[in-house]
Amino acid sequence: MSFLLVWCIGLGLGGMFFGGLWWTVSKGVLSANPALYVLTSLLLRMGLALSGFYLVLTSDLGEPSWQLLLLCLFGFLTARLLITRCTRVASVKAIKAPKESPHAP
After folding, report:
1. Which of 18, 51, 59, 76 could form a disulfide with 10 if both were Cys (CB 3.0 to 4.6 A apart)?
2. Which of 9, 16, 19, 22 is closest to 73 using CA atoms?
3. Do 4 and 65 contact (CB within 8 A), yes or no?
4. Residue 59: what pLDDT?
5. Which residues contact 3 (CB under 8 A, 6 or more apart)?
6. Which residues does UniProt call coiled coil (predicted)?
7. Which residues contact 99 (CB under 8 A, 6 or more apart)?
């Protein structure tokens, strides 16, 4: 049970980190001050991710902490793959949509 919980925590941390990265890049490009936008996002995302990994490492779930940390990292990387796949599909749809004109002969 603790293994599934730690994997889900890693999945959530990765979802917040990489989802936040995608959101930052998509919104930061249009921002008036993109450097501040990206730097603030980086600090928030890194702070959340490192805090989450630290809490997993120091937790008392009855298992060796390095194994739980490795499992949390696996969940984090799984989230990276999922976010990358989802955002790639959304990007392709956004690129193709404007080219298809409803007024084309």
Report:
1. 76
2. 9
3. no
4. 83
5. 63, 68, 71
6. none
7. none
27 has pLDDT over 80: yes
Q: Cα-flanking dihedrals φ and ψ of residue 64, to 5°?
A: -60, 135
CB atoms within 10 A of CB 72: 26
3-state secondary structure of 86: helix
| Residue 90 in tokens | 């959304």
Instruction: For the chain, give the mean pLDDT.
Output: 86
- What contacts 57, CB < 8 A, 6 or more positions away? 65, 66, 68, 69
DSSP character for 1? Answer: -
Helix (H) or strand (E) holding 104: none
Q: How many other C-beta atoms are found inside a 10 Å radius of the C-beta of residue 75?
A: 21
Helices of type H across the chain: 2-28, 34-58, 65-99
